[in-house]
Design a protein that fits this description.
- The structure holds 2 protein chains of 2 kinds.
- By secondary structure, chain A is an all-alpha fold.
- Chain A has 12 helices and no strands.
- Chain A has a single domain, classed as MetI-like (MetI-like fold, Orthogonal Bundle).
- Chain A starts with a helix and ends with a helix.
- Chain B has a single domain, classed as Orthogonal Bundle (MetI-like fold), CATH 1.10.3720.10.
- Chain B is globular.
- The C terminus of chain B is likely disordered.
- Chain B is built from 14 helices and 2 strands.
- By secondary structure, chain B is an all-alpha fold.
- The chains are: A mainly alpha, B mainly alpha.
- At the A-B interface, α1, α3, α4, α5 and α6 of A face α1, α2, α4, α5 and α6 of B.
Protein backbone atom coordinates (compact mmCIF):
# COMPACT_ATOMS: atom_id res chain seq x y z
CA UNK A 1 0.00 0.00 0.00
CA UNK A 2 2.79 2.36 1.02
CA UNK A 3 4.76 1.40 -2.06
CA UNK A 4 1.71 2.21 -4.16
CA UNK A 5 1.46 5.64 -2.65
CA UNK A 6 5.12 6.37 -3.39
CA UNK A 7 4.61 5.17 -6.95
CA UNK A 8 1.60 7.45 -7.38
CA UNK A 9 3.46 10.44 -5.99
CA UNK A 10 6.43 9.65 -8.22
CA UNK A 11 4.16 9.55 -11.27
CA UNK A 12 2.67 12.97 -10.56
CA UNK A 13 6.14 14.30 -9.78
CA UNK A 14 7.42 12.98 -13.11
CA UNK A 15 4.58 14.78 -14.86
CA UNK A 16 5.49 18.05 -13.19
CA UNK A 17 9.17 17.49 -13.94
CA UNK A 18 8.34 17.04 -17.63
CA UNK A 19 6.38 20.29 -17.59
CA UNK A 20 8.66 22.46 -15.50
CA UNK A 21 12.13 21.22 -16.42
CA UNK A 22 12.16 23.02 -19.80
CA UNK A 23 10.79 26.16 -18.15
CA UNK A 24 13.48 26.03 -15.46
CA UNK A 25 16.13 25.71 -18.16
CA UNK A 26 14.72 28.83 -19.80
CA UNK A 27 15.05 30.76 -16.54
CA UNK A 28 18.69 29.64 -16.27
CA UNK A 29 19.38 30.69 -19.87
CA UNK A 30 17.98 34.14 -19.14
CA UNK A 31 20.55 34.52 -16.32
CA UNK A 32 23.46 33.07 -18.28
CA UNK A 33 26.00 35.72 -19.38
CA UNK A 34 27.07 33.66 -22.42
CA UNK A 35 25.25 33.82 -25.74
CA UNK A 36 25.26 30.07 -26.34
CA UNK A 37 23.86 27.05 -24.53
CA UNK A 38 26.35 24.85 -22.69
CA UNK A 39 25.85 23.30 -19.27
CA UNK A 40 25.07 25.42 -16.23
CA UNK A 41 25.73 29.16 -16.29
CA UNK A 42 29.21 29.93 -14.90
CA UNK A 43 27.90 33.08 -13.23
CA UNK A 44 24.68 35.00 -12.97
CA UNK A 45 24.19 38.08 -15.08
CA UNK A 46 21.33 40.38 -15.98
CA UNK A 47 22.91 41.19 -19.31
CA UNK A 48 20.00 39.75 -21.33
CA UNK A 49 17.47 41.55 -19.16
CA UNK A 50 19.25 44.75 -20.09
CA UNK A 51 19.17 43.90 -23.79
CA UNK A 52 15.49 42.93 -23.49
CA UNK A 53 14.55 46.33 -22.08
CA UNK A 54 16.59 48.09 -24.75
CA UNK A 55 14.98 46.06 -27.53
CA UNK A 56 12.39 48.26 -29.24
CA UNK A 57 10.61 45.34 -30.91
CA UNK A 58 9.91 43.66 -27.59
CA UNK A 59 8.90 46.87 -25.83
CA UNK A 60 6.59 47.94 -28.68
CA UNK A 61 5.08 44.48 -28.85
CA UNK A 62 4.51 44.37 -25.12
CA UNK A 63 2.85 47.81 -25.15
CA UNK A 64 0.56 46.83 -28.03
CA UNK A 65 -0.27 43.53 -26.34
CA UNK A 66 -1.24 45.25 -23.11
CA UNK A 67 -3.41 47.77 -24.98
CA UNK A 68 -5.09 45.12 -27.14
CA UNK A 69 -5.58 42.75 -24.20
CA UNK A 70 -7.10 45.49 -22.03
CA UNK A 71 -9.51 46.81 -24.67
CA UNK A 72 -10.67 43.39 -25.83
CA UNK A 73 -10.98 42.33 -22.18
CA UNK A 74 -13.28 45.28 -21.47
CA UNK A 75 -15.39 44.71 -24.60
CA UNK A 76 -15.60 40.94 -24.09
CA UNK A 77 -16.64 41.16 -20.46
CA UNK A 78 -19.17 43.95 -20.88
CA UNK A 79 -20.76 42.41 -23.98
CA UNK A 80 -20.46 39.05 -22.25
CA UNK A 81 -22.37 40.23 -19.17
CA UNK A 82 -25.38 41.26 -21.27
CA UNK A 83 -25.31 38.18 -23.46
CA UNK A 84 -24.94 35.68 -20.63
CA UNK A 85 -27.55 37.41 -18.49
CA UNK A 86 -29.93 37.25 -21.42
CA UNK A 87 -29.14 33.61 -22.12
CA UNK A 88 -29.57 32.42 -18.53
CA UNK A 89 -32.63 34.52 -17.71
CA UNK A 90 -34.67 33.60 -20.76
CA UNK A 91 -33.55 29.99 -20.90
CA UNK A 92 -35.93 28.58 -23.50
CA UNK A 93 -35.17 26.60 -26.65
CA UNK A 94 -33.92 29.28 -28.97
CA UNK A 95 -31.97 31.19 -26.35
CA UNK A 96 -30.29 27.98 -25.15
CA UNK A 97 -28.95 27.54 -28.67
CA UNK A 98 -27.65 31.06 -28.52
CA UNK A 99 -25.37 29.88 -25.70
CA UNK A 100 -23.77 27.45 -28.14
CA UNK A 101 -23.56 30.22 -30.73
CA UNK A 102 -21.56 32.39 -28.34
CA UNK A 103 -19.18 29.52 -27.60
CA UNK A 104 -18.73 28.65 -31.29
CA UNK A 105 -15.42 30.52 -31.75
CA UNK A 106 -13.92 27.92 -29.40
CA UNK A 107 -14.71 25.17 -31.90
CA UNK A 108 -12.70 26.82 -34.65
CA UNK A 109 -8.90 26.79 -34.43
CA UNK A 110 -7.63 30.32 -33.79
CA UNK A 111 -5.33 29.96 -36.79
CA UNK A 112 -8.42 29.65 -38.99
CA UNK A 113 -10.16 32.55 -37.24
CA UNK A 114 -7.08 34.67 -37.86
CA UNK A 115 -6.88 33.82 -41.57
CA UNK A 116 -10.62 34.34 -42.04
CA UNK A 117 -10.43 37.76 -40.41
CA UNK A 118 -7.34 38.70 -42.43
CA UNK A 119 -9.12 38.12 -45.75
CA UNK A 120 -12.44 39.49 -44.60
CA UNK A 121 -11.09 42.72 -43.10
CA UNK A 122 -8.84 43.30 -46.13
CA UNK A 123 -11.84 42.90 -48.40
CA UNK A 124 -13.79 45.39 -46.26
CA UNK A 125 -10.89 47.82 -46.47
CA UNK A 126 -10.22 47.83 -42.72
CA UNK A 127 -6.49 48.33 -42.68
CA UNK A 128 -5.85 49.72 -39.20
CA UNK A 129 -3.97 46.86 -37.59
CA UNK A 130 -4.58 48.02 -34.02
CA UNK A 131 -8.37 48.01 -34.52
CA UNK A 132 -8.14 44.69 -36.37
CA UNK A 133 -6.18 43.16 -33.51
CA UNK A 134 -8.80 44.33 -31.01
CA UNK A 135 -11.59 42.89 -33.18
CA UNK A 136 -9.78 39.56 -33.57
CA UNK A 137 -8.96 39.29 -29.88
CA UNK A 138 -12.53 40.14 -28.92
CA UNK A 139 -13.79 37.31 -31.14
CA UNK A 140 -11.55 34.75 -29.45
CA UNK A 141 -12.00 36.01 -25.88
CA UNK A 142 -15.78 36.58 -25.90
CA UNK A 143 -16.60 32.85 -25.55
CA UNK A 144 -14.51 32.65 -22.38
CA UNK A 145 -16.30 35.53 -20.74
CA UNK A 146 -19.71 34.14 -21.79
CA UNK A 147 -18.80 30.71 -20.48
CA UNK A 148 -17.71 31.98 -17.07
CA UNK A 149 -20.57 34.46 -16.72
CA UNK A 150 -23.36 32.09 -17.76
CA UNK A 151 -22.05 29.68 -15.13
CA UNK A 152 -22.15 32.50 -12.57
CA UNK A 153 -25.60 33.78 -13.56
CA UNK A 154 -27.12 30.31 -13.45
CA UNK A 155 -26.19 30.06 -9.77
CA UNK A 156 -28.03 33.32 -9.00
CA UNK A 157 -31.62 33.13 -7.83
CA UNK A 158 -33.76 35.24 -10.22
CA UNK A 159 -36.35 35.77 -7.46
CA UNK A 160 -34.00 38.24 -5.76
CA UNK A 161 -34.06 40.45 -8.85
CA UNK A 162 -37.82 40.03 -9.19
CA UNK A 163 -38.30 41.03 -5.58
CA UNK A 164 -36.28 44.21 -6.12
CA UNK A 165 -38.24 44.96 -9.30
CA UNK A 166 -41.60 44.45 -7.62
CA UNK A 167 -40.50 46.77 -4.83
CA UNK A 168 -40.09 49.45 -7.46
CA UNK A 169 -36.41 49.39 -8.41
CA UNK A 170 -35.67 50.26 -12.02
CA UNK A 171 -33.91 47.60 -14.13
CA UNK A 172 -30.77 49.74 -14.11
CA UNK A 173 -30.84 49.96 -10.34
CA UNK A 174 -31.48 46.25 -9.98
CA UNK A 175 -28.48 45.58 -12.18
CA UNK A 176 -26.09 47.96 -10.43
CA UNK A 177 -27.23 47.33 -6.84
CA UNK A 178 -28.19 43.65 -6.90
CA UNK A 179 -26.76 41.75 -9.85
CA UNK A 180 -23.36 43.39 -10.19
CA UNK A 181 -22.28 42.98 -6.55
CA UNK A 182 -23.33 39.35 -6.60
CA UNK A 183 -21.38 38.43 -9.72
CA UNK A 184 -18.26 40.38 -8.81
CA UNK A 185 -16.01 37.32 -8.27
CA UNK A 186 -17.21 35.81 -11.54
CA UNK A 187 -16.62 39.11 -13.27
CA UNK A 188 -13.04 39.14 -11.98
CA UNK A 189 -12.54 35.60 -13.28
CA UNK A 190 -13.97 36.60 -16.67
CA UNK A 191 -11.61 39.56 -16.98
CA UNK A 192 -8.62 37.43 -16.03
CA UNK A 193 -9.64 34.67 -18.46
CA UNK A 194 -10.07 37.05 -21.36
CA UNK A 195 -6.90 39.00 -20.58
CA UNK A 196 -4.73 35.91 -20.43
CA UNK A 197 -6.32 34.40 -23.56
CA UNK A 198 -5.56 37.61 -25.42
CA UNK A 199 -2.00 37.66 -24.14
CA UNK A 200 -1.47 33.98 -24.98
CA UNK A 201 -2.78 34.25 -28.50
CA UNK A 202 -0.34 34.14 -31.35
CA UNK A 203 -2.36 32.64 -34.20
CA UNK A 204 -4.82 35.50 -34.66
CA UNK A 205 -2.14 38.11 -33.94
CA UNK A 206 0.27 36.82 -36.58
CA UNK A 207 -2.26 37.44 -39.35
CA UNK A 208 -3.63 40.75 -38.12
CA UNK A 209 -0.36 42.46 -37.14
CA UNK A 210 1.71 44.67 -39.38
CA UNK A 211 4.78 46.84 -38.87
CA UNK A 212 2.64 49.55 -37.19
CA UNK A 213 1.07 47.39 -34.52
CA UNK A 214 2.25 43.94 -33.55
CA UNK A 215 1.67 42.03 -30.35
CA UNK A 216 4.29 40.64 -27.99
CA UNK A 217 3.63 37.15 -29.36
CA UNK A 218 4.38 38.32 -32.87
CA UNK A 219 7.60 40.01 -31.73
CA UNK A 220 8.64 36.81 -29.97
CA UNK A 221 7.68 34.74 -33.01
CA UNK A 222 9.81 36.78 -35.38
CA UNK A 223 12.81 36.41 -33.05
CA UNK A 224 12.21 32.69 -32.55
CA UNK A 225 12.26 32.12 -36.30
CA UNK A 226 15.36 34.21 -36.86
CA UNK A 227 18.22 33.61 -34.44
CA UNK A 228 19.18 32.18 -31.08
CA UNK A 229 18.89 35.15 -28.73
CA UNK A 230 18.80 34.75 -24.94
CA UNK A 231 16.66 37.87 -24.61
CA UNK A 232 13.81 35.59 -25.78
CA UNK A 233 14.45 33.72 -22.52
CA UNK A 234 13.91 36.99 -20.65
CA UNK A 235 10.64 37.51 -22.53
CA UNK A 236 9.68 33.96 -21.56
CA UNK A 237 10.45 34.60 -17.90
CA UNK A 238 8.29 37.72 -18.04
CA UNK A 239 5.37 35.78 -19.58
CA UNK A 240 5.75 33.02 -16.97
CA UNK A 241 5.64 35.64 -14.21
CA UNK A 242 2.47 37.14 -15.70
CA UNK A 243 0.88 33.68 -15.84
CA UNK A 244 1.68 33.05 -12.17
CA UNK A 245 0.25 36.43 -11.17
CA UNK A 246 -2.96 35.81 -13.15
CA UNK A 247 -3.45 32.39 -11.58
CA UNK A 248 -2.86 33.83 -8.13
CA UNK A 249 -5.49 36.48 -8.92
CA UNK A 250 -8.02 33.82 -9.99
CA UNK A 251 -7.38 31.85 -6.81
CA UNK A 252 -7.88 34.95 -4.69
CA UNK A 253 -11.05 36.19 -6.40
CA UNK A 254 -12.90 33.16 -7.72
CA UNK A 255 -11.20 30.01 -6.48
CA UNK A 256 -9.17 27.73 -8.71
CA UNK A 257 -11.28 24.63 -8.15
CA UNK A 258 -14.31 26.37 -9.66
CA UNK A 259 -12.34 27.28 -12.75
CA UNK A 260 -11.27 23.72 -13.57
CA UNK A 261 -13.15 22.61 -16.66
CA UNK A 262 -14.22 26.10 -17.63
CA UNK A 263 -11.26 26.87 -19.78
CA UNK B 1 -60.56 62.15 -28.72
CA UNK B 2 -60.00 62.53 -25.06
CA UNK B 3 -60.88 58.91 -24.53
CA UNK B 4 -58.27 57.78 -27.07
CA UNK B 5 -55.69 59.91 -25.33
CA UNK B 6 -56.61 58.32 -22.06
CA UNK B 7 -56.33 54.90 -23.62
CA UNK B 8 -52.80 55.63 -24.81
CA UNK B 9 -51.93 56.97 -21.42
CA UNK B 10 -53.22 53.76 -19.97
CA UNK B 11 -51.06 51.80 -22.37
CA UNK B 12 -47.83 53.34 -21.11
CA UNK B 13 -47.45 51.05 -18.11
CA UNK B 14 -48.11 48.00 -20.24
CA UNK B 15 -45.50 49.16 -22.76
CA UNK B 16 -43.06 49.46 -19.92
CA UNK B 17 -44.07 46.02 -18.76
CA UNK B 18 -43.56 44.70 -22.26
CA UNK B 19 -40.13 46.31 -22.40
CA UNK B 20 -39.20 44.87 -19.05
CA UNK B 21 -40.34 41.50 -20.13
CA UNK B 22 -38.47 41.43 -23.41
CA UNK B 23 -35.53 43.70 -22.61
CA UNK B 24 -33.74 40.62 -21.42
CA UNK B 25 -33.87 39.24 -24.96
CA UNK B 26 -32.51 42.46 -26.43
CA UNK B 27 -29.37 42.29 -24.31
CA UNK B 28 -28.06 39.47 -26.46
CA UNK B 29 -27.98 41.64 -29.58
CA UNK B 30 -24.60 43.47 -29.28
CA UNK B 31 -22.58 40.29 -28.82
CA UNK B 32 -24.69 38.35 -31.28
CA UNK B 33 -24.27 40.91 -34.03
CA UNK B 34 -20.56 41.27 -33.32
CA UNK B 35 -19.97 37.53 -33.69
CA UNK B 36 -22.11 37.38 -36.82
CA UNK B 37 -20.11 40.20 -38.42
CA UNK B 38 -16.62 39.25 -37.31
CA UNK B 39 -16.77 35.51 -36.86
CA UNK B 40 -19.52 33.84 -38.87
CA UNK B 41 -19.17 36.09 -41.90
CA UNK B 42 -15.35 35.75 -42.15
CA UNK B 43 -15.61 32.01 -41.63
CA UNK B 44 -18.19 31.67 -44.41
CA UNK B 45 -16.06 33.92 -46.56
CA UNK B 46 -13.07 31.59 -46.28
CA UNK B 47 -15.29 28.77 -47.56
CA UNK B 48 -16.41 30.91 -50.50
CA UNK B 49 -12.83 31.97 -51.32
CA UNK B 50 -11.72 28.33 -51.47
CA UNK B 51 -13.71 28.11 -54.73
CA UNK B 52 -12.25 31.30 -56.18
CA UNK B 53 -9.81 31.35 -59.04
CA UNK B 54 -6.12 32.21 -58.56
CA UNK B 55 -5.00 34.79 -61.08
CA UNK B 56 -1.57 35.62 -59.71
CA UNK B 57 -0.57 38.74 -57.84
CA UNK B 58 -1.93 41.64 -59.83
CA UNK B 59 -3.11 45.04 -58.67
CA UNK B 60 -6.83 44.94 -57.91
CA UNK B 61 -6.80 41.31 -56.88
CA UNK B 62 -6.30 40.93 -53.14
CA UNK B 63 -4.33 37.76 -52.49
CA UNK B 64 -4.53 36.88 -56.19
CA UNK B 65 -8.15 35.85 -55.96
CA UNK B 66 -10.81 36.30 -58.59
CA UNK B 67 -14.43 35.61 -57.66
CA UNK B 68 -15.90 32.58 -59.33
CA UNK B 69 -16.69 28.97 -58.67
CA UNK B 70 -13.94 26.55 -59.61
CA UNK B 71 -12.70 23.37 -57.98
CA UNK B 72 -9.10 24.01 -59.10
CA UNK B 73 -7.76 24.53 -55.58
CA UNK B 74 -9.13 21.26 -54.26
CA UNK B 75 -8.11 19.37 -57.40
CA UNK B 76 -4.60 20.80 -57.11
CA UNK B 77 -4.35 19.66 -53.49
CA UNK B 78 -5.64 16.14 -53.98
CA UNK B 79 -3.85 15.46 -57.25
CA UNK B 80 -0.37 16.13 -55.94
CA UNK B 81 1.17 13.37 -53.81
CA UNK B 82 3.34 15.96 -52.01
CA UNK B 83 0.31 17.59 -50.45
CA UNK B 84 -1.31 14.29 -49.58
CA UNK B 85 1.91 13.28 -47.87
CA UNK B 86 1.92 16.49 -45.80
CA UNK B 87 -1.70 15.83 -44.91
CA UNK B 88 -0.80 12.34 -43.73
CA UNK B 89 2.13 13.67 -41.63
CA UNK B 90 -0.23 16.20 -40.01
CA UNK B 91 -2.80 13.57 -39.10
CA UNK B 92 -0.15 11.09 -37.98
CA UNK B 93 1.47 13.57 -35.58
CA UNK B 94 -1.93 14.54 -34.17
CA UNK B 95 -2.98 10.90 -33.67
CA UNK B 96 0.27 9.92 -31.96
CA UNK B 97 -0.02 12.99 -29.72
CA UNK B 98 -3.62 12.19 -28.89
CA UNK B 99 -2.86 8.61 -27.90
CA UNK B 100 0.22 9.51 -25.83
CA UNK B 101 -1.56 12.41 -24.17
CA UNK B 102 -4.51 10.30 -23.07
CA UNK B 103 -2.31 7.50 -21.75
CA UNK B 104 -0.07 9.89 -19.81
CA UNK B 105 -2.71 12.40 -18.69
CA UNK B 106 -5.39 10.00 -17.46
CA UNK B 107 -3.41 8.67 -14.48
CA UNK B 108 -2.25 12.20 -13.59
CA UNK B 109 -5.84 13.48 -13.66
CA UNK B 110 -7.02 10.43 -11.73
CA UNK B 111 -4.43 10.82 -8.99
CA UNK B 112 -5.09 14.54 -8.68
CA UNK B 113 -8.88 14.06 -8.68
CA UNK B 114 -8.82 11.24 -6.14
CA UNK B 115 -6.14 12.42 -3.75
CA UNK B 116 -6.91 15.09 -1.24
CA UNK B 117 -4.58 17.53 -2.81
CA UNK B 118 -3.59 20.96 -1.70
CA UNK B 119 -4.41 23.97 -3.78
CA UNK B 120 -0.83 24.29 -4.91
CA UNK B 121 -1.02 21.13 -7.02
CA UNK B 122 -4.04 22.57 -8.81
CA UNK B 123 -2.20 25.88 -9.14
CA UNK B 124 0.78 24.07 -10.70
CA UNK B 125 -1.51 22.31 -13.18
CA UNK B 126 -3.05 25.66 -14.06
CA UNK B 127 0.38 27.22 -14.55
CA UNK B 128 1.42 24.31 -16.77
CA UNK B 129 -1.77 24.82 -18.74
CA UNK B 130 -1.56 28.59 -19.16
CA UNK B 131 2.11 28.98 -20.08
CA UNK B 132 2.41 30.86 -23.36
CA UNK B 133 2.78 28.49 -26.35
CA UNK B 134 5.84 30.34 -27.65
CA UNK B 135 7.54 30.07 -24.26
CA UNK B 136 7.12 26.30 -24.44
CA UNK B 137 8.52 26.08 -27.96
CA UNK B 138 11.55 28.17 -27.06
CA UNK B 139 12.15 26.07 -23.94
CA UNK B 140 12.08 22.84 -25.95
CA UNK B 141 14.30 24.32 -28.61
CA UNK B 142 16.94 24.87 -25.92
CA UNK B 143 16.37 21.57 -24.11
CA UNK B 144 16.75 19.54 -27.31
CA UNK B 145 19.55 21.62 -28.84
CA UNK B 146 22.96 20.14 -29.61
CA UNK B 147 24.58 21.29 -26.37
CA UNK B 148 21.34 21.48 -24.41
CA UNK B 149 20.56 19.76 -21.12
CA UNK B 150 19.34 16.50 -22.66
CA UNK B 151 22.59 15.97 -24.51
CA UNK B 152 24.64 17.10 -21.49
CA UNK B 153 22.95 14.47 -19.36
CA UNK B 154 23.39 11.83 -22.05
CA UNK B 155 27.07 12.71 -22.27
CA UNK B 156 27.50 12.38 -18.50
CA UNK B 157 25.90 8.94 -18.72
CA UNK B 158 28.32 8.17 -21.58
CA UNK B 159 25.45 7.63 -23.98
CA UNK B 160 25.45 8.75 -27.60
CA UNK B 161 24.08 12.24 -28.27
CA UNK B 162 20.78 12.70 -30.00
CA UNK B 163 19.71 15.53 -32.25
CA UNK B 164 15.93 15.67 -32.23
CA UNK B 165 15.40 19.17 -33.62
CA UNK B 166 13.94 18.84 -37.10
CA UNK B 167 12.31 15.46 -36.45
CA UNK B 168 8.81 14.32 -35.68
CA UNK B 169 9.63 13.16 -32.13
CA UNK B 170 10.75 16.72 -31.27
CA UNK B 171 7.43 18.10 -32.53
CA UNK B 172 5.53 15.43 -30.60
CA UNK B 173 7.44 16.22 -27.39
CA UNK B 174 6.75 19.92 -27.80
CA UNK B 175 3.06 19.27 -28.45
CA UNK B 176 2.74 16.88 -25.50
CA UNK B 177 4.02 19.65 -23.26
CA UNK B 178 0.91 21.67 -23.90
CA UNK B 179 -1.59 18.91 -24.66
CA UNK B 180 -1.09 16.92 -21.45
CA UNK B 181 -2.08 19.80 -19.10
CA UNK B 182 -5.08 20.44 -21.35
CA UNK B 183 -6.17 16.83 -21.09
CA UNK B 184 -5.50 16.67 -17.33
CA UNK B 185 -7.76 19.67 -16.76
CA UNK B 186 -10.45 18.23 -19.02
CA UNK B 187 -10.34 14.87 -17.22
CA UNK B 188 -10.25 16.00 -13.58
CA UNK B 189 -13.93 17.04 -13.59
CA UNK B 190 -15.41 13.83 -15.06
CA UNK B 191 -13.24 11.66 -12.80
CA UNK B 192 -14.31 13.61 -9.72
CA UNK B 193 -17.94 13.01 -10.59
CA UNK B 194 -17.47 9.23 -10.33
CA UNK B 195 -18.36 8.17 -6.80
CA UNK B 196 -15.30 6.40 -5.30
CA UNK B 197 -17.64 4.08 -3.39
CA UNK B 198 -18.58 2.38 -6.70
CA UNK B 199 -14.94 1.43 -7.18
CA UNK B 200 -14.67 0.32 -3.58
CA UNK B 201 -17.77 -1.84 -3.99
CA UNK B 202 -16.26 -3.54 -7.05
CA UNK B 203 -13.03 -4.18 -5.18
CA UNK B 204 -14.78 -5.57 -2.13
CA UNK B 205 -16.71 -7.92 -4.40
CA UNK B 206 -13.39 -9.36 -5.51
CA UNK B 207 -12.49 -7.38 -8.63
CA UNK B 208 -8.79 -6.70 -9.02
CA UNK B 209 -7.73 -3.05 -9.21
CA UNK B 210 -7.08 -3.52 -12.92
CA UNK B 211 -10.51 -5.05 -13.57
CA UNK B 212 -12.11 -2.29 -11.51
CA UNK B 213 -10.33 0.31 -13.61
CA UNK B 214 -11.25 -1.16 -16.98
CA UNK B 215 -14.79 -2.25 -16.11
CA UNK B 216 -15.87 0.57 -13.81
CA UNK B 217 -13.74 3.70 -13.83
CA UNK B 218 -12.89 3.89 -17.52
CA UNK B 219 -16.46 3.38 -18.84
CA UNK B 220 -17.86 5.85 -16.34
CA UNK B 221 -15.37 8.51 -17.34
CA UNK B 222 -15.59 7.77 -21.07
CA UNK B 223 -17.45 11.00 -21.94
CA UNK B 224 -14.60 13.01 -20.44
CA UNK B 225 -12.12 10.80 -22.24
CA UNK B 226 -13.86 11.42 -25.57
CA UNK B 227 -13.82 15.15 -24.90
CA UNK B 228 -10.11 15.06 -24.09
CA UNK B 229 -9.38 12.92 -27.16
CA UNK B 230 -11.21 15.29 -29.49
CA UNK B 231 -9.63 18.33 -27.93
CA UNK B 232 -6.07 17.01 -28.14
CA UNK B 233 -6.54 15.73 -31.67
CA UNK B 234 -7.91 18.99 -32.99
CA UNK B 235 -5.24 21.00 -31.17
CA UNK B 236 -2.63 18.64 -32.62
CA UNK B 237 -3.89 19.00 -36.19
CA UNK B 238 -4.02 22.78 -35.98
CA UNK B 239 -0.75 23.28 -34.09
CA UNK B 240 1.46 25.69 -35.94
CA UNK B 241 4.37 27.23 -34.05
CA UNK B 242 5.55 23.97 -32.49
CA UNK B 243 5.95 22.09 -35.80
CA UNK B 244 7.43 25.18 -37.41
CA UNK B 245 10.17 25.80 -34.83
CA UNK B 246 10.88 22.26 -33.59
CA UNK B 247 10.49 20.82 -37.10
CA UNK B 248 13.09 23.35 -38.28
CA UNK B 249 11.70 23.26 -41.82
CA UNK B 250 12.51 19.56 -42.20
CA UNK B 251 9.03 18.38 -41.20
CA UNK B 252 6.15 20.10 -42.98
CA UNK B 253 2.58 20.03 -41.75
CA UNK B 254 -0.60 21.46 -43.24
CA UNK B 255 -0.73 24.57 -41.05
CA UNK B 256 2.73 25.61 -42.26
CA UNK B 257 1.60 25.34 -45.90
CA UNK B 258 -1.46 27.42 -45.05
CA UNK B 259 0.59 30.06 -43.24
CA UNK B 260 2.88 30.28 -46.24
CA UNK B 261 -0.02 30.89 -48.67
CA UNK B 262 -1.17 33.85 -46.61
CA UNK B 263 2.21 35.43 -45.90
CA UNK B 264 5.07 34.60 -48.27
CA UNK B 265 3.90 32.86 -51.45
CA UNK B 266 0.53 34.59 -51.37
CA UNK B 267 -2.29 32.55 -52.87
CA UNK B 268 -5.51 33.11 -50.92
CA UNK B 269 -7.78 30.71 -52.84
CA UNK B 270 -5.44 27.75 -52.44
CA UNK B 271 -4.78 28.69 -48.81
CA UNK B 272 -8.50 28.91 -48.14
CA UNK B 273 -9.03 25.47 -49.71
CA UNK B 274 -6.37 24.03 -47.38
CA UNK B 275 -8.08 25.69 -44.41
CA UNK B 276 -11.33 23.98 -45.38
CA UNK B 277 -9.46 20.67 -45.69
CA UNK B 278 -7.93 21.26 -42.25
CA UNK B 279 -11.36 21.88 -40.75
CA UNK B 280 -12.74 18.77 -42.43
CA UNK B 281 -10.01 16.43 -41.18
CA UNK B 282 -10.69 17.82 -37.71
CA UNK B 283 -14.42 17.22 -38.14
CA UNK B 284 -14.03 13.73 -39.58
CA UNK B 285 -12.04 12.78 -36.52
CA UNK B 286 -14.71 14.17 -34.22
CA UNK B 287 -17.32 11.94 -35.81
CA UNK B 288 -14.99 8.91 -35.94
CA UNK B 289 -13.77 9.16 -32.37
CA UNK B 290 -17.28 9.68 -31.07
CA UNK B 291 -18.49 6.63 -33.02
CA UNK B 292 -15.54 4.54 -31.86
CA UNK B 293 -16.22 5.19 -28.20
CA UNK B 294 -19.92 4.48 -28.67
CA UNK B 295 -19.17 1.15 -30.26
CA UNK B 296 -16.68 0.19 -27.58
CA UNK B 297 -19.00 0.95 -24.74
CA UNK B 298 -22.11 -0.50 -26.29
CA UNK B 299 -20.46 -3.81 -26.96
CA UNK B 300 -19.41 -4.09 -23.38
CA UNK B 301 -22.39 -2.81 -21.47
CA UNK B 302 -20.87 -3.24 -18.07
CA UNK B 303 -21.93 -1.14 -15.19
CA UNK B 304 -23.88 2.01 -15.74
CA UNK B 305 -24.49 4.39 -12.93
CA UNK B 306 -27.86 6.08 -13.30
Amino acid sequence: MDGGLILKRAYVAAFFLFIFFPLGVTVLISLDPRDYVFGLPPSISFRWYQSFIENDTFVNGLTTSLIVASISMIISTSVGIFASYSITRSGKGFMKNLGTYFLSPLLVPTLVTGIALLMYLKQLGMLNSLINLVVGHTVITLPYSVRVLTAVFSTLDPSIEEAAMSLGASPLKVFSKIVLPMIRPGLMAATIFTFSESLNDYAVSIFLSDSNSYTFSVALFSYLKAVFDPSIAVASVLLMAITVVLIYAIEKTFGLDKVVGMW
Amino acid sequence: MFIIFLEIFNLVPSIELLLRRYAVYLLVIPGGVFLALFFLAPLSYIFVVSFYEYVGLKPGYIGGMKPGFVLDNYIQFFSEPVFLNYLWITVRIALVCMALTLVIAYPVAYLIARARIGRWVLALVMVSFLIHPLVRVYAWEIVLSEFGPVNTILEMLRLPKISLIGTEPAIILGLLHFLIPYAVLTLIGPIRRVDPSIEEAAMSLGASPLTTFFKITLPLTSPGLVAAALLTYSLGVTAFVTPLILGAGKVVVLTMLIFDRFTDTVNYPFGAAMVVILLIIGLVAVVLIDYLFKVIYRRRPVWTAG
